[in-house]
Write a structure and sequence with these properties.
The protein is an all-alpha fold and 577 residues long. Among the domains are: 100 residues; 52 residues, no CATH class. It has 26 helices and two strands. The protein has a two-stranded antiparallel sheet with strand order 1-2. Helix 11 runs antiparallel to helix 12 and helix 25 runs antiparallel to helix 26. The longest helix has 24 residues. The chain starts with 23 loop residues before the first helix and ends in an 8-residue tail after the last helix. About 4% of the residues have low confidence.
């Protein structure tokens, strides 16, 4: 079928149904393993192309064949330099360039541009080959997102590296040469040096291109401390663009809007002005443009309750549209907009956002699996908070597991929604889902589930289902299912025992009472009262006496009262007295 099957797992996992992930932890492990295996296979194929010379695919599928990674041209020539550049061999390309200079052979300006672009892109280091060993001299960024290892690497611009050396050796330098170095310096954190390079370019009476201005605007907040100074620098760069007759593009305005997020209160007025300027020039904003603008008005944890007018206008403008990714930050739009909906408790606006996600192939702009989890987690939390339980369960079945693996907080939100609409009879079903989703080892979630089941007395049928569920929870605490056992708490023991008592499972409840002593826990007075009432209803004086003895062993303050009540309610023998 064309529609999404909500009971099916993601397409990427359907090659091996047995190993299809059923929990968020398995999803992460499976995805990492799949990506690691793919990268390792690609690395092996590219490193040993001689073993993969036959092409069985019809028609030919280039991505399944070995990439050209080995050098074929060994002579000192510009063609050999071009080959090294195309294969992203940074060190080899620099060595070949130096050999050409030593031999007195000139290198064309076009090839020099490509060489500078390569060196500056990787900050004069070899790129991390997919599936291959990682290079040293890098700063590792923290994060758990499911991405390639190279996505977590951040390099630093080194002083007097090969890019600067080659640049200084050039007899003639044009805008592209300056552009390569400036963009490389901004990319790798040398912001002040980039602005110095731009000043040097102006002193040589050269004009910048749009990529230089985009990079400098994005780096402006890094070279000024005060908000007004940052905006003044951005405005000055925009004026220089106008003077040099450089036409701005979408990334120019997105760089301005992103920089404005670090300009304090100035951001609100200038962001709207920037959007208006974009439209006046006929440049359609991307999702990142709106995301940066909304960020100026809706700060996380800021007092903007109920103020969603701007977002309403944005959603009206975007309604029914289909988007393609034009800016790397486009993928942050939906998760950030859903945060605003959640902060303002605006469920109708959240539905409009979800409708936009479902339009065309906009779902592709939800970002990686981490961003998707954030988006759907916020949407589901808002549903649990604002909607009737029937609507919540409809979305619950639609999203899980095909699109979303709820975390512990998501399941707690669902439990609260069930409690709000008095549908606690569904708790045993939710407990099964908790187990399938891998959250049965989360003690705080189990405690909340047990507390909701034990809080009130229900019909015999519901109490029986609660008792079965309680015994299942008990097996999890004891580690009977091959998993690590959980530490028994007093509240968990009390709740399970109480649930068994209410379902008339007296023997199993009595066994639970013995666990208190084994686990060094003290039962509550309310639980002892429930036991005494059950003994009276069953006409079991022996159990009542044993209960009083057990209470005395626990040194409960209620022991005298329990003894007195037992003497009053039961006809005891002299020995029992």
């Amino acid at each position: 079928t064309e529609a999404i099957d909500p009971t099916a797992y993601k397409y990427q996992f359907q090659d091996d149904p047995y190993l299809a992930p059923r929990t968020s932890a398995e999803f992460k492990l499976f995805s990492l393993s799949q990506e690691s295996g793919r990268s390792a296979a690609k690395y092996f194929i590219n490193s040993n192309p001689k073993f993969f010379t036959k092409d069985f695919a019809e028609p030919h599928i280039p991505c399944l064949m070995p990439e050209k990674v080995s050098l074929l041209l060994e002579e000192v020539s510009e063609e050999a330099l071009k080959e090294r550049i195309s294969l992203r061999k940074v060190k080899a390309a620099v060595d070949m360039y130096d050999q050409l200079l030593q031999a007195g052979t000139g290198v064309s300006m076009e090839t020099t541009h490509d060489l500078l672009d390569l060196i500056c892109l990787y900050s004069d280091r070899e790129p991390v080959q997919e599936g291959g060993p990682e290079t040293e001299d890098v700063v590792r960024q923290e994060g758990w997102r499911i991405r390639r290892a190279s996505d977590f690497l951040k390099t630093i611009w080194r002083e007097n590296n090969n890019a600067e050396r080659i640049f200084n050796l050039l007899p003639e330098r044009d805008t592209h040469c300056y552009s390569a170095l400036i963009r490389g310096m901004i990319r790798h954190g040398a912001y002040v040096k980039a602005f110095d390079m731009y000043t040097d370019m102006l002193n040589n009476r050269m004009t910048a291109d749009v990529r230089i201005f985009n990079a400098l605007i994005s780096g402006a907040p890094e070279v000024r401390e005060k908000y007004n100074e940052r905006w003044d620098l951005i405005a000055e760069l925009l004026n220089q663009m106008n003077q040099q007759k450089v036409q701005p593009n979408l990334l120019t305005f997105n760089s301005v809007l992103k920089a404005l997020r670090r300009c304090g209160s100035l951001a609100r007025t200038q962001a709207l002005h920037t959007l208006s300027e974009m439209k006046a020039l006929g440049i359609a904003p991307s999702l990142a443009s709106f995301d940066h603008t909304l960020a100026a008005f809706y700060k996380a944890a800021s007092p903007t309750q109920g103020q969603t007018d701007l977002l309403q206008e944005v959603m009206s403008e975007l309604a029914g549209s289909s988007f393609t990714c034009q800016d790397p930050d486009d993928v942050l739009f939906f998760s950030n907009v859903m945060r605003i909906c959640l902060d303002n408790k605006d469920i109708e606006l959240a539905y409009r956002v979800q409708s936009l996600v479902e339009a065309g192939e906009n779902w592709r702009l939800l970002g990686d699996s981490h961003q998707q989890t954030i988006y759907y987690g916020r949407f589901f939390s808002l549903l649990c908070m604002m909607e009737h339980i029937d609507v919540v369960l409809k979305w619950y079945r639609k999203l899980i597991p095909s699109l979303y693996y709820p975390n512990v907080q998501g399941m707690r939100d669902l439990l609260q929604a069930l409690d709000t609409d008095s549908r606690l009879d569904l708790l045993p079903t939710i407990w099964k889902d908790i187990q399938l989703l891998g959250h049965a080892n989360k003690s705080e979630l189990i405690e909340e589930l047990l507390a909701l089941m034990a809080r009130e007395t229900h019909s015999p049928e519901v109490q029986e289902s609660f008792a079965v569920c309680a015994l299942d929870v008990k097996s999890v605490f004891n580690g009977d299912r091959g998993t690590l056992s959980l530490e028994w708490s007093t509240s968990a023991l009390c709740h399970i025992t109480s649930l068994l008592l209410r379902a008339k499972r007296t023997q199993e409840a009595w066994e639970m009472l013995q666990l208190f002593k084994a686990k060094n826990r003290v039962p509550s007075e309310e639980l002892m009262n429930e036991f005494l009432l059950e003994c009276h209803a069953a006409g079991a004086p022996d159990r009542a006496v044993e209960l009083v003895q057990l209470s005395a062993a626990f040194c409960l303050p209620a022991t005298p009262r329990l003894a007195q009540q037992t003497l009053k309610d039961f006809d005891l023998t002299d020995e029992q007295r």
